[in-house]
Design brief:
The protein has 218 residues and is α+β, with helices and mostly antiparallel strands. It contains six helices and eight strands. A four-stranded antiparallel β-sheet has the order 1-2-3-4. β5 and β6 form a beta hairpin. The longest helix has 31 residues. The two termini are 39 Å apart. About 6% of the residues have low confidence.
């Protein structure tokens, strides 16, 4: 039995309060994590450049063809091992994570060796964003209020890159990020409506809660 089998509800450390319901649950795509967290494509490119340079240098030095093939196989084998290890880490990282959006909060549970769960009530989320990639996946960073600080390393790899002083949790590598962002926007707007004065219009509330969108080609 693993540690997650004791969860009363999948992805949640305890039962939800009365009146609170789950709107969406999902997990990151391991391929998206492999490319953008563990950078397997960049590493593969590095080994390809290294191999080309070594082959060129050996040819210029007059090395025998068989020796060139042998040295090339060592580089190719090393590249395969490194990429395989990083791909396995990406798969394990994705497999151990689950994100939950309810009518009142976002819950992030992740961690391969040491699982952690972050409970992010909507009232502590200042804004949400959306970034799409060319492969159809996307990320949703969550900006918290200034007095809510979480260490960047504790959140990694589900932290918005390069936001160290005020780390932002991020739902990363989602398959249907646009659809998830719409669900989150609706939930934030509904929650905000219960906490804002009646003089504020519904359109103003929805606009404040709607995630911003930034497209990025992979």
């Amino acid at each position: 039995m693993n540690e997650h089998e004791t969860e009363p509800v999948r992805g949640l450390p305890e039962l939800l309060p009365a009146g609170e319901t789950i709107l969406w649950q999902g997990a990151p795509r391991w391929g998206a994590l492999a490319r953008r967290v563990f950078h397997v494509r960049k590493i593969a490119l590095y080994f390809a450049i290294l191999l080309a340079w070594l082959v060129y240098a050996d040819i210029e030095d007059g090395i025998a063809p068989w020796s060139i093939v042998q040295s090339s196989l060592w580089v190719i084998g090393g590249a395969a091992v490194v990429i395989a290890i990083l791909s396995i880490l990406a798969w394990l990282t994705a497999r151990s994570a689950i994100f939950t959006i309810t009518t009142r909060r976002v819950v992030m549970r992740f961690g391969v060796a040491f699982p952690v769960t972050f409970n992010l009530p909507f009232r502590r989320i200042r804004s949400a964003g959306l970034r799409r990639y060319g492969d159809g996946s996307g990320d949703i960073p969550l900006a918290l209020f200034a007095d809510d600080r979480i260490a960047y390393l504790v959140l990694w790899p589900y932290a918005r890159p390069w936001r160290f002083s005020q780390a932002e949790p991020m739902l990363r590598g989602l398959q249907d990020a646009g659809q998830v962002a719409e669900i989150l926007a609706g939930a934030l707007a509904a929650d905000m409506a219960t906490r804002t004065p009646v003089t504020q219009t519904a359109s103003d509330t929805a606009a404040a809660a709607k995630p911003s969108s930034q497209a990025a080609a992979e």
